[in-house]
Structures are given as structure tokens and as C-alpha cells.
Amino acid sequence: MFCYWGDDVRAGFGLVKPDGVKKTTSGVFFCSPKSRIKQLAPGKGLVGFVRGEGNVSVIRVPPAGGLQCGRLKNLELKDKIRLMSCRETQAVLLTYAGRSFWMDTHNHCSPLKELSGRNVIQVVCGDQHCMALTQDGQFFTWGQNSSGQLGLGKGEPSFLSPQPLKSLCGIPLAQICAGGDHSFALSMSGSVFGWGRNSAGQLGLGDTEDRYIPACVNSLTFKKTVFISCGEEHTATLSKGGTVFTFGSGRYGQLGHNSFRDEHHPRVVGELWGSMVSQITCGRHHTLALVESSKTIYSFGCGEQGQLGSGQRTNQCVPVPVHLPPETNHDKSVEQIVAGGNLSFVLCSQQEADNSSVHPELNRGRGILTLGDGMIDRWISECDSNQWKTIKKEMKTVFSSAACLNGSFIKKSCDVHYQTSTSFSGLDMESVRAAFERLAQKEKVLLEIEKIVEKDLLPSLGCTALGAEAMRVYLILPEFLRVLNKDLHETKLTAELASAILKLNPSMLQVLENYWSELPDDFFKPLVELFRKPSAYFISKMTFDQRIKCYFKFLKKYVRVLQMLYKAFCKGQREMASRDFIIHEVNDLFELLEAVNQELFYMGAQWFVVLKEKRQLEHILQILNSSPCIFNLEAKCNLLKLRKVREVFRLELRRTALLKDCFSQLRAADESALKGCLQVVYSEKHEKTDVNKKDFFYNVFRTLLDPESRMFVYNDTKTLIWFPAEPSLQEENYFLFGCLCGLAFYNNSVVNLPFPLALFKKLADVQPSLEDLTEFSPVLGRSLQYILDYSDEDVECMEMSFTIIWEDKEVELDPNEPGKVVTSSNKKEFVDAYVDYTMNKLVERVFEEFRRGFYKVCDQDLVESFQPEELRGVMVGTEEYDWSTLKKNARYEGLFHSRHPMIVSFWEVFDELSDKDKKAFLLFLTGFDRVPVLGMDQVRMRVCCLYMSTEDHLPEALTCHSLLQLPMYQTKETLRAKLLEALHHKRGFWEE
């Protein structure tokens, strides 16, 4: 049965004789055409009928109040038509084979040449524009672009021929829809994109500005949208649970919100709430909704031409039931409702309606091709049969299209895929892995896929896609590369994947990073290895054969992606460790560079050849420098030593005014000067003497960190310091102290900084934790841990609140809710707030001054390449004293050798020293009393004879070279006495 109402038209549209058309008292016409109508396609001035056998008839419909409509005409087409969509006076037709035709105003049909060879699955038309979706997920638009309805960008002209809409590339689309001058697309995971005219808010974006490229309607995210329909200036969406949202123009009541106001955001139609709507459709200024369970059609909006079917020609702003013929309540079920122009249609059938909430085939048309279990089974079982040509075609469709792959493997159970967001991919990674492992069973299939991915898919990636769903392909492809089981450095696919990732715009890169951070270790670790292994291979090759320049471009891409993966790794708790990113072959580059530098020093006429080799090595290291995650601690320290220093930063100081002169010159220095190589000069009484930097740092920090300086607060055990909340000194002092710490770091000087790890975390932009607070204040830390460990009942009985007393002042840890009570559900929130207050907010002003000074000297990227523990080790050193290593690595010069009596006596005396005196000797020799973070191996002690000396002379040391100068003492006892006197003598450079 065919029902219609609205504009006066030819009786039955010419589908039946006039006497075969009946009319209800409410103005609904109904008839029973001889051939089944499969689809209705109403436009502003045109209505098309697609018959069950694939034939098409069209009839011209004049504007409201115009002349009687024309005659029904059959289109002369050999192809059977599956789908039709009408513009104002023209139409696009789609065959079962996916061919598309254009019908002009004279009903002449011709193929759309630009879409020939493409399997089109959906076509839709607005008033003056058209859109088409192909089986491989490509989206085309053409027609008028006056309001941006083509989505091609601002300033783009109108096009008569279909143009690819690149901004939605990779999004697996389920439906496309067009209104008057606006357009919509719906993804398989329920994301809604709108663009074009927005004069009444019909895009649902909260404003009335036109959009020239697709914009995601964030208000509909997570609403499980399954269908969209557009009117001339309004839009309706249907959620899977049967909820209807409308937005845009409400001038005629077409939004159903019991008002005639426009809505700029999607709003639920309250009158239909809970009714389980199964279909929606929008006419020019009216809307229809079907509740299938009760066979009730509701209409609202403009009724001036009777298009509401209520028997009245008035506008309605709330849904009212349509009075259908009594016959529809017996053995008929409503198959399809369609609104277009000022007309409404209903198709009824004899079949019983199924129990699904929507009719996807009727409402959406066919979907894009996706990879499923049945398809994989068929490929594997029939690849050796005469079906191979068909299988290859399917493979090409799926694996040449990011959209098709992104629509595969989604988590449909419990509608999980509708939760897809910028932090959740909606992918079932276990299904991805299982699918590729099954495909790998047939090498013929796998190799064919490899060719398609390399030739078609990878070159198409990296565009500026708009939606998060486009990022799924970057999780899927690594699983395919894993099962290829090839040496990773021999395939181009990894390099092409890296290139595509690096082409992504920053917002999409952030989405991909979020997806990576949520990957389980079983998937994340192979992803890291995908880029780490070839990187190690290339570095190894380039170390020993620097002529292989072709590796440069690959290596640069791989290590950049590794650094992105490392950033994602740092976001979550994982069983794998940061060492899984390290490429130990980098250390070979530093060793080779050191050898080249030594060779360059002694080279003669061939120096330019060695210099070229040196620059090549430095270039490789410069490439790797952007990816510190691949460096172990030794490599990072070597990198710190290799930083380019063009100038010398000279501090000229007086012994009697050390801090005053130092601060004065730091205050006046510009940022570029501070980054130079530090030179310290003592100047007094018309003489200047170079001072070893280590001696300078040792004495200046000893002065600053003295408790009498009152710069810092000490913990209960007087072993650690922290910043004061209310400093007694000027805040500038902390800025200058930060500059000094930066200078020490940049100049490879170990200094005494008895701070907890929290300081180095904050410098590395890592938030301090309860463990860090416990390190500084064990009593307070254990108390907070006690709260966390309490059972729920105990916490409820503690009668604590987020209001704490700190230094006799009340502090609200949650200013938004003063007096908030600590409960079992928020006890962790309380502890986190407590830690944040004590380690961050309380000292924020002072610490920021210190941080500003530190980063005035140091490059933040270089500092943040170190882990907090590594940063502390580099700046402060360790207390892992290994005196046997110091002795083993000692080198002797001049008269001395390892078996010389003086050397034998020296080590015997040294072994008998107390631990305190041994540390004093390390300070005497090197200028610092702690071990470098890389161990005692880094202290290369040299020993030579102090010529022209007597037994009255004390041993001397050049700390900048770790050189010990020993007089030739006659006895071991004299050696012991003079060594101890030297270690404890107060004639030190700063204490004369």
C-alpha cells in the first residue's frame, strides 16, 4: 500500500488510475500500485519511484500553489536501478552494480563519467548539490558551493563534476545526507560531521556560522547515532535506542520542541522520549517519525499544505499522530516513511516487520566493504580456485582503503564502538591479530595484500583527516607488518608507515599517541620493535660505513616515531621498561667520534678526510639527538658533552665577594652568553688566576646551601632541603641559584644538591608523588600512606576533611567544596591533593623562579631527555665509591709506573685511609667528593712526579685533569703525613 499527503498532486502520481485512489477524512491519500515501490525519492520539484524490478518513474511536482503536476514518465534505462536521490529538478540514480547516472531536467540520463569504474553504494542530493559514497569508502561531492555545502574548503568554487572530499578520508562512513544547502556524514561508530549553510544552526555546532569543511558535532558524541535526515534548514538524528534529536530552524515547529525557536545544539524531542522511534525523515519544513511497535507515525512542523496528515492545515510544534487509513492497522506494516518538499509518503507491506529498531537497508543504503571472518575464510579456502580474480578485487577494495580497514575489527559487542573518542579507538586488537595470523596461513594471500598495501594504501595515508576513527589504520598496519615475518630493514612498508605517521597534523598525532598509550604491552612492545630494530641496524651500518647515505632518511623517520611512542609509553603503567627503547649501537658512534677526534689531533696532510668523517658522525648524532629515548645514560652524558658551544662565559670573581660578584654577573648576562663554556677567573690585587670550574662550584654551593644562608628549609633529619613557602631572601636569589645549577649541569660539574627526587621530577616536567614527599618527610609520608592503607570503615571513622592546618593556617585542599569530608571513595584524591599542595602549590612562586633561572641556561628538551633519577645522578653524582676501580684505571707519567716504589707506597697509604679521608682525596683530586653517575670508571686519575720539590712539599693536584703530583718522599710515613696534611690543609684556594 502507498500513502501520501501534502501538496495537491495528480491523483496517485499516475501510479494508478484516479478511481484507484482513496482519501481519508484527514487528507491522507492511499492506493495499491500494481508493481511494488521499492524506494521513494522526493525532491523540491521532482518525485522519483524505484520499482521492485529496478525500473524508475518520475513526475514533476510544481511549487506550492502552482499548476497541476505533470505526467508520470518512465525512464529508459537498460540498467536496473537500486537507489535514486533528487535535487530540485534533477536526480542521481544508482544501479545494483554500483554505476551512477545523472538525470537532467528533461529526464535524460547519462553516466557520471568521473565515477565510472567506482562501485558507488550511496547517493544523496540537496537542493543544488550532490554527494556519493563508494564501496571503498571514498566520498565525492559536486554542485553549488555557495555556503560550503561541498565541504571542499572556503573559497572553493562550485563544481559540475564529482570532487573527492579529502577531509573525511579514512573515516569509515555509514551514511551520507544532504539538506537544502547543508550536508552531513555519519561514521560507523556514530560520529556526526556537518558542513555547509548554518544560518539557523542546522549543523548543530552551537552557532550560526557556515562551515566550509566538515566539523564534528561533538554534542552527538556517544549518542549512538544511527541515522540522519535533513530538511531545508533543520536536521534530525536518530539514536540506536530510538531517541530523536533535532536542531536548526524551528520557525514552523519542525523541531517538535513545543516552540518555534531555532536550536543551535541537538536537542531531544521530549514528546517522543521513550517511544522507541524506528525511522525519521525530514521534508522541507516538516518532520516525520515512526514508532514501529505501535504502527504510529508522528508529524510536526509546517502543515500549510496538509503535509502533517492530521486533517488540519496549521503548523504544529509538537509531534501529532498521522491519521492513516484503517487498512494499515490490519495486515499491513509500515515499511518506509519519506518526507520531501511539502509532501509525505508511507510505504506499507504485507510482510511482518522485524523487531529491529531501524531498517538500515532502507534508511542508509549499502555500507562500505569491511574485512570479516567470512571473507577471510573464503579468501583462504578459494585462493587457489577460479575465484582468485574476484578475491583479488575484494582485497584491493579493502586493503587499498584506510576507511575500509578502519571500519573493520571494531568492537560491536555491547555497542562498545560507539564510545570511540580521541582516547579510545573502538578497535578489537585481538581480532586484528587473529585476522592477520589467519591470513598468514596462505602466503599467496599475504603477498598479494603486501603489494596492495605498499602500492595503494601507504601512499594515501598521512592526510589531514578530521576524525579519530581515521587513526585506527595506524594500529592495524603494524600487526600486518608483524606477520609478514621479514627482516624489517628489507621492507619499504615500515618506512612508508613512519612517513605517513609523521605527515599527520598535531591534533591527529595526539589522538594516535593516546591510542598507543592505551595499547596492552602485547601489542605495544612489537610496535616499538617495529621501529627500534631497523633503527639499530641502520646505526650499526652507518657507524662502520658512512658512505651509506641512503639510510639517513629512513633512520630519521624511525627514531622520530620511536620518540612519539616513548611519549605514549610514559603515560601509562607498563611491564615493559624504558630500556626497551634503548639502541646500544649509539654508543659505538660516540666511541668512533672520540677516536676520530684523537686522530684529527695527530693528523698531517690528510686532516680534511678525517674532518669529513667527523662531521658525518656529528650529523648522524644530530639526527638521533631529537630522539633521546634511544640513548642510555652514558650516551646522554656524551651528548651533553658534545653540545655546540661557540662562546666562553667568563666569571671574574673576588675571593672576598664570591656570591656578590657571581650574582651580579649572572644578573647581567644574556641567555646566549650563559650557554657558553664557563671560565672562572679569580681577580684580586692586580693579578688574575684561572680557577678550576669544579672548585668554583664546590665553594659557591657550599656557601649557598649553608643553613645560615636561610635560603632553604631542612627536613627533620637535616639531610634534605626544600624550597620555603615564604622566603626570607629576595626571590631573585632563587632565580640566580637556578642559573648556577644550570651552569653546573651544562659544564659537567657534580655539585652538592641535597634535594629530594621531587626537584628533578619537577625540572623534567614529571609530577611528584607520595613517595617523593615521603623521601623528604618520612613521618608525614607514612601518615598519608596509612590513610590509603586504611580499610573503608576506618576511613569513615576518622572524621577528616580536606581542610588541613599548615603552619598554623587553615588550607582548603578542595577550594570548590570547603570542608569536604574524606571518605573511602575519595581518600586517594585527598592524599594526591595533599602531595600537590606541599610539593607544588606551597612553593610554586619560589620554585618557578628557580626553574626560570635553570632554563635560562639549559635547553629544556635536553634536560627532559633525562629521567628524573638520571638527572639527579648527572648533577649530584652518587655515593657508590669503588676505590679498586680508581686504582685500576690510574695512569702514570714520567718516572712513575705501577711498580715504582713511590706508587706502591702511595696505594698502600691510600688503602689504609678512612672512608672520610678517601672522599677527601677524591675532592682533592677531582674537585668533587661524589662519584659521577656513570661510576668511578669516569674518574681517570693521572699521577706524575712533582719535580724540583723537597720533602717539605705537599702533594698537589690539578682537578681539571684529575692529575696528582707527588714529590719523591723517602719513606712511606712521610708520604702518609704529607698526604693527610694536603687533604686537611686550610690553605685551599678559597680559604687563604
Describe this structure in words.
- The protein has 992 residues and is an alpha+beta fold.
- Among the domains are: 2-364, Regulator of chromosome condensation 1/beta-lactamase-inhibitor protein II (Methylamine Dehydrogenase, Chain H, 7 Propeller); 648-768 and 845-876, Hect, E3 ligase catalytic domain fold (Alpha-Beta Complex); 773-839, Hect, E3 ligase catalytic domain (2-Layer Sandwich), CATH 3.30.2160; 883-984, Hect, E3 ligase catalytic fold (2-Layer Sandwich).
- The protein is built from 30 helices and 40 strands.
- The strands form 11 sheets. A 5-stranded antiparallel β-sheet has the order 2-3-1-29-28, with no helix packed on it. A 4-stranded antiparallel β-sheet has the order 4-5-6-7, with no helix packed on it. The chain has a 4-stranded antiparallel β-sheet with strand order 8-9-10-11, with no helix packed on it.
- The longest helix has 24 residues, at 521-544.
- The relative contact order is 0.05.
